[in-house]
Design brief:
single chain; alpha+beta; three-stranded antiparallel β-sheet; three-stranded mixed β-sheet; nucleotide-binding; DNA binding
């Protein structure tokens, strides 16, 4: 594996551990050239459905996009990177198990919002405000009012 720091292409594995769920392997690696260490994760490549975008385009399911959106929503919130990874793992499993070859992007967005709603309501509102593209403050306030009603 290539070193992300100096691009040396021969690194060695220092330590390997099985992930919490047993579905990935965490490896600590060291570069002999610059002597820096880094972590890699190895997991089985699974067949995920294609995503149908709003404009009708189709693209491959991209785990990194979901993680990125969730990280932005959870910024400065008490939600760890590990929690985000676990939420995305659960979402991926859900989409694989549905058995569909294609899935509408709106279903993914709704699933992400539901997941965030259960973990952190502020992160949920942040994600919803971007995902739902509220037209004005009234739409945003309506969502907050619904959130407050449902949390009591």
């Amino acid at each position: 594996m290539k070193c992300p720091f100096c691009q040396h292409d021969d690194t060695r594995v220092v330590d390997s551990r099985l992930g919490k769920e047993g579905n990935n392997v965490r490896r600590r690696r060291e570069c002999p050239a610059c002597e820096r260490r880094f972590t890699t994760y190895e997991r089985v490549e699974e067949i995920l459905p294609w995503v149908i975008k709003k404009d009708g385009r189709r693209e491959a399911f991209d785990r990194a996009k979901i993680i990125s959106g969730m990280q932005r929503a959870c910024e400065k919130r008490p939600v760890s990177v590990e929690q985000i990874e676990e939420m995305v793992d659960q979402l991926e499993r859900k989409f694989q198990e549905c058995g569909d070859k294609e899935i509408d992007a709106s279903l993914i967005g709704e699933a992400v919002m539901e997941t965030l709603h259960n973990v952190d309501e502020v992160a949920y509102v942040r994600f919803a405000s971007v995902y739902r593209q509220f037209k004005d403050i009234n739409e945003f306030m309506s969502e907050l009012t619904d959130l407050l009603k449902n949390s009591n």
